[in-house]
């Protein structure tokens, strides 16, 4: 059982965090009109991109290191508790349909397991050991990258994940919303997006959550661009798993090649619906087996495969 002394220590720690700071000027916000509160909240949210912009060099450096690991077969593993953990799971779950990654390539671990996505799992975030166990369960290796996510930067689960990963030689990134955080200090690449006190004291699903979402969008998207999952700004590795995505696949091939509907249908049919391969058959003037071979030789980079297909 936690003693009053322990609670006092924790309270003092929270008092020192920017994300937990109390804002006296908002003490009677509940007495304002809904429109006024909405305007205040919107103005608060508008400050988040600027806070992210201040840390773009650190974000880019982390992404370059991550992309290098993934190009050699490493995985991207997010680890966090509560809102931070949910955002990591969300980003990981969106990679397969968007970039045609295997579900095992980008993983999201949340303290307390899948149940914690919708229900708070008491005490799970307080355990460094639980993080190590979760990483052991997914067979973490020194080729992988672990991104610990925590608004406060003090969450034991996120810090434990980074410390365990680093002890095994994995690349580590610590994403926090407080300066001088233990999480950033524990990681090889510390990223601290300081968004300031929240509209509701300590409600870090607000500005801090928005900042984390923006950075996670960058981490996954820019890494996939570096890995050749795009051609220009087209998602050429999109997985056509429903009608909307099948229509998008045809549109992407059309935008990349300028080909007509009949040519596009023929190309996609010959390549089993693989958008990148279909584009290569149309722009490179090669058949489907050759397109597959060229893309394999180019590690999936369409531009490089096109260079190899075109006569010099």
Write the layout of secondary structure elements.
Elements: H1 4-15, H2 34-45, H3 48-53, H4 56-71, E1 76-80, H5 82-99, E2 106-110, H6 128-137, E3 145-150, H7 156-167, E4 171-176, H8 182-186, E5 189-192, H9 207-226, H10 243-257, H11 261-270, H12 275-284, H13 288-297, H14 302-309
Parallel strand pairs: 1-2, 1-3, 3-4, 4-5
The string of secondary-structure elements, in order, is HHHHEHEHEHEHEHHHHHH
Distance from first to last alpha carbon = 74 Å
Classification by helices and strands: alpha/beta
Largest sheet: 5 strands, parallel
Q: How big is the Rg?
A: 23 Å
Number of strands: 5
DSSP summary: helix tally: 14
Fraction of residues in H or I helices: 40-55%
Q: How big a fraction of the residues is strand?
A: 5-15%
Give the strand order of the largest sheet, numbering strands 1, 2, ... along the chain: 2-1-3-4-5
Instruction: Detail the poorly predicted runs.
Output: none
């Amino acid at each position: 059982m936690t003693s009053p002394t322990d609670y006092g220590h924790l309270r003092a720690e929270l008092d020192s965090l920017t994300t937990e700071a109390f804002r006296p000027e908002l003490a009677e916000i509940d007495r304002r009109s809904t429109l006024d509160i909405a305007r205040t909240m919107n103005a608060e949210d508008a400050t988040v991109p600027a806070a992210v912009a201040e840390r773009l060099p650190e974000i880019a450096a982390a992404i370059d290191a991550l992309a290098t690991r993934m190009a050699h077969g490493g995985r991207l593993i997010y680890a966090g508790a509560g809102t931070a953990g949910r955002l990591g799971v969300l980003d990981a779950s969106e990679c397969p349909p968007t970039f045609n990654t295997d579900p095992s390539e980008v993983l999201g671990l949340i303290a307390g397991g899948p149940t914690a996505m919708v229900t708070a799992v008491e005490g799970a975030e307080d355990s460094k050991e639980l993080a190590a166990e979760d990483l052991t369960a997914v067979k973490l290796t020194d080729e992988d990258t672990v991104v610990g996510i925590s608004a406060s930067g003090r969450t034991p689960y996120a810090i434990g994940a980074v410390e365990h990963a680093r002890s095994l030689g994995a690349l580590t990134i610590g994403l926090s919303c407080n300066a001088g955080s233990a999480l950033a200090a524990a990681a090889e690449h510390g990223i601290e997006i300081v968004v300031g006190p929240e509209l509701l004291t300590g409600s870090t699903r607000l500005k801090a959550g928005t900042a984390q979402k923006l950075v996670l969008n960058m981490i996954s998207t820019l890494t996939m661009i570096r890995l050749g999952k795009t051609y220009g700004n087209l998602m050429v590795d999109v997985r056509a798993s429903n009608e909307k995505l099948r229509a998008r696949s045809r549109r992407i091939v059309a935008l990349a090649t300028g080909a007509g509907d009949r040519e596009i249908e023929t190309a996609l049919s010959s390549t089993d619906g693989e958008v990148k391969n279909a584009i290569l058959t149309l722009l490179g003037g090669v058949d489907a087996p050759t397109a597959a071979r060229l893309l394999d030789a180019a590690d999936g980079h369409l531009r490089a495969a096109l260079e190899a297909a075109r006569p010099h």
